[in-house]
Specification:
The chain has about 130 residues and is an all-alpha fold. Helix 4 crosses helix 6. Bound molecules: heme C.
Length: about 130
Amino acid sequence: MRFAITAAALLVSAVADGSAQEVRDPGERAFLQCYSCHSVQAGETKGLQGPNLSGIVGRPIAAQPGFKYSPAMRAFAKEQGFWSPALLDRFIAEPEHVVPGTAMSGYPGLADNHARKALMEFLKSH
Ligand code: HEC
């Protein structure tokens, strides 16, 4: 009986440890602000309002086949070409300021420098 109680206590503490380890890395946590509209899983677009962001760092701007980009984003693509890390960082900080008229206006931007740095690392690795 005593053994059973100890085993149960061990099980409870193991479960508690497991959930503690699930704390996401800061970049992934920042991406939670994006993932209602975007996916970083290659090819996943279903039900999402924004384009897929797999490999976005260094990718040509507005390049997802079949996605209806705003005229503002298409014009910006002609001007700038591709998402350099610096350009992407600025866009995420202030979307409407960097691409006036973008359809991403539902998202106000991520002003926090630390969170944005972590998010950039997350995007680079996906
Ligand atoms: C409310 C929905 C929404 C949220 C939240 C959102 N976006 Fe977007 N995003 C969009 C839409 C819509 C577009 C297409 C913009 C256009 O065509 O003007 C877009 C476009 C983009 C693009 C350009 C992609 C390409 O193919 O060139 C990037 C990069 C991007 N978003 C990153 C982010 C990041 C990073 C976050 C979170 C910090 C985020 N977005 C949050 C809706 C959203």
